[in-house]
Amino acid sequence: MTFFNLNPRLEGDSYFIADLPLCAVRLMKDANYPWLLLVPRKIDMVELIDLEEDDQLQLMREIAQASRALRSVTDAEKLNVGALGNQVSQLHVHVIARFRDDIAWPGPVWGVAPPLHYDPEKAETLIEQLRDMLSSDADAA
Predict the structure, then answer these.
(1) What's the farthest any 2 CA atoms get from each other in the chain?
(2) Could you report the per-residue pLDDT of 10-34, keeping only the tens digit for each?
(3) What is the reported pTM?
(4) Are the beta carbons of 8 and 108 closer than 8 angstroms?
(5) Burial class (CB in 10 A: 0-12, 13-18, 19+), 134
(6) Buried b vs exposed e over 93-102: b needs ≥16 C-beta within 10 Å?
């Protein structure tokens, strides 16, 4: 049996939310923007095309599921979705809630402001809300 290992940087920069059928879902530790990471629990994946076709389709379903949950919980005006991996090569997808009044609007979030630490209670509340939405969306599917 092989075990999935999360890149230490991704692990250190985020909180665990839930495991979906393919991906670990995590909340980035940056309260500037509600920001999810989806990390397929597969070994040695760097690009979307490294996944088997069925897993590519599952990843798209899970991106949509996470996007619906994030939009519902945050009332985001826009969602940014991307798989860059320039600093961490392990395949992961960013789903970022954006607002016209956020510090980086309308540009990308990277490098605009230092990460803003979550108040622990606010982080836990957001994580619980996202877990509930992810669970209810999975139940509805």
Answers:
(1) 47
(2) 999 999 999 999 999 999 999 999 9
(3) 0.93
(4) no
(5) buried
(6) bbbbbbeeeb
